[in-house]
Amino acid sequence: MGRFSYIETAPVPERALLLGIDRASSPWPVDRSLDELERLAYTAGAEVVARLTQRLDRPVPRTFIGSGKVEELVGMVRRLSIDVVIFDDELTPSQQSNLEHAVGEPVKIIDRTALILDIFGRHAKTREGRLQVQLAQLQYLLPRLRGMWTHLAKEQTRGGIGSRFGQGESQLEVDRRMVRNRIAALRRQLETLERRREVQSRARVESPAFRIALAGYTNAGKSSLLNRLTGSSVLAQDKLFATLDPTTRSLALPGGRVVTVTDTVGFIQKLPTSLVESFKSTLSEVLTADLICKVVDVSDDDWKRHLAAVESVLADIGADERRAITVFNKVDLLEPSERMGLARSHPDAVVVSASSGFGIDELMERLSREASSADRLLTAVIPYREGALLQTLHEQALVLNEEYLPEGTRLVVKAAPRLAAELERYRVL
Ligand SMILES: Nc1nc2c(ncn2[C@@H]2O[C@H](COP(=O)(O)OP(=O)(O)OP(=O)(O)O)[C@@H](O)[C@H]2O)c(=O)[nH]1
Ligand SMILES: [Mg+2]
Q1: At what angle do helices 145-155 and 93-103 cross, to 10 degrees?
Q2: Which of 3, 54, 193, 400 is the S-S candidate for 412 at Cβ 3.0 to 4.6 Å?
Q3: Does any domain span residue 2?
Q4: Same domain as 305, residue 227
Q5: Are residues 383 and 307 in the same domain?
Q6: Nearest CA to ligand 1 atom 7
Q7: Backbone angles phi, psi at 209, to 5 degrees
Q8: Which residue has the least CA distance to atom 21 on ligand 1?
C-alpha cells in the first residue's frame, strides 16, 4: 500500500455543486445539460446539492467564469460545505488550478471529462477496457499534475471522484516523467492487444453471419434490448455507462436465419474527444457491423438531442454511411396516443419496449428483412465433402431450391455478402 491507504468508495457521498454556462449558441439548454451532469455525478457516487449557472458566450480565459461568479461560487462552497465543484465544460489545466486557488483546499474542481473518466474507470471490466481508461486518465492528469499534486495526495486517504485515477499504480510517488513512461507503456500494451484483436476480428469478419450492432445514447436500453432479443443477461442498470465492453450474442431470426447482435458503449453529448479516441476499438464493432440499430429512449424529453449526438459521433468515427435503422425504445412509458403519433411521424423507425416486449416481434421481422435485403441471389454446386459449408448455408442463408447431382448439392440461395463471397468458388450461376 505504501504511504497512502486507498479507499475504494467514499463512505459518505461527496457533496457536489454543478456549474454550467448558458450559451445562446448551444443546442442544449443549460438546465438540460446540468440534469445530465447530475445523473453522471450520481453515477459516480456524489450527491448534488446546488447548481450555479452563468450566461456567457465565451469562457473567461483565467477562471472560465467571470470574477463575480467566482466570488458567488466561493460563498456557496463555504455555506453548503461543498466537497467538489463539477464544471459542465472542459476546463484547461490553468483554469482548474486558478479556480482551486480561489475556493481553497480541500475543495476539488473537476470537469465533465474527469467525471466521465472516473465512471469509466469504475465500470471497465476487460483488460483492454481498463488499459484504455487508465491511458485516458493519465493523459488527463499529466498537464494537471502540478495543480493536483498535493491535492491528490490528500485525496487518496479520502477517496471520491478523481481519486481513482491511475488506479492500481503507485502513481502518487511518481513525477511527470514517470507518468509519461507509464503512458508510453500503456500505449504499447494496447497496441499489442489491438493487433491481437485485429487478428480475431479478421477471423470474425470472415465468419459469414450478418452482424447487427446496437448503438445509442447512454441509458437508452441497449443492453436491455440485447437481453430481450437473445435471452441473455447482460448487466442493465439505470446508471450512465453501465456498459463499457461490447458483448456479442447470436440471434435466430424468424425464418431460422442466425445473425449476431453486439451491445456497445453508450454515447453522450460533449463526449471528450480523448475518450472517443481510446474507445475506437470498442466502437469498431459498430464500424464493421452490417446493420446499426440506433436505439433511442423516447421517454426522455431530450431524445431528439440524444439521437443527434449519437449521429454526430457515428459520423465522427466514419460509421454514418453504414446501413442503419432507428429503434424507439421505452414506449411503455408513453401514452398510446403519443406512441401512435411517433409511429406515424417516423414510419421507418421500429417502436418497441425492451421491458414489456412490445414491438419485439416486429423488430425481429424488420431485422430479418434488413438482413435479407443485403443478400445476393446465386446458384452453386457444393461438393459433398463440404458438409460444414452446407450446414452453414442452411443456418444462415435462405435456400430457395436444393437438388442432388452426382458432383454435389446444387443450391439456389440468397446469402449475406460475406457468405456469398465464400460461395464464389462453387458458383455456377
Ligand atoms: N420503462 C422501461 N425501461 C427500460 C426499457 N428498456 C430499458 N429500460 C431501463 O432503462 C435503464 C437503462 O437500460 P440499459 O439497458 O442499461 O441501457 P443501456 O443503453 O445499455 O445503457 P448504458 O450501457 O449505460 O449506456 C434500465 O434501468 C432499464 O431497466 C423499456 O423499454 N422501458
Ligand atoms: Mg448497457
Answers
A1: 50
A2: 400
A3: no
A4: yes
A5: no
A6: 221
A7: -60, 145
A8: 219
Contact 236, 319 (CB under 8 A): no
| Ligand 1 near 230 CB (within 6 A) | no
Q: What is the pLDDT of residues 138-168, one digit of tens each?
A: 888 888 875 444 444 444 445 667 766 654 4
Q: Report the distance separating Cα 108 and Cα 302, nearest Å.
A: 30
CB of 354 sitting under 6 A from ligand 1? yes
Question: Which ligand minimizes its atom distance to the CA of 239?
Answer: 1
Domain membership of residue 83 as a residue range: 14-172
CA of 14 to the centre of ligand 2 (A): 25
Cβ(264) to ligand 1 under 6 A?
no
pLDDT in tens, 297-348: 999 999 999 999 999 888 888 888 889 999 999 999 999 999 999 999 999 9
Which of 119, 122, 237 to probe ligand 1 with, by most ligand atoms within 8 A of CB?
A: 237
**160 & 228 share domain:** no
- 259 and 292 share one domain: yes
Are 214 and 232 members of one domain? yes
Within-domain flag for 74: yes
Report how far ligand 2's centroid is from the alpha carbon of 339 (Å).
24
What is the per-residue pLDDT across 248-264, written as a single tens digit (0 to 9) for each? 888 999 877 888 999 98
Phi-psi region of 359 (alpha: psi -120 to 50; beta: other; left: phi over 0): left
Rg of the chain over Cα atoms, rounded to whole angstroms, equals 25
- Domain count for the chain, please give it: 3
pLDDT of the residue at 170: 44
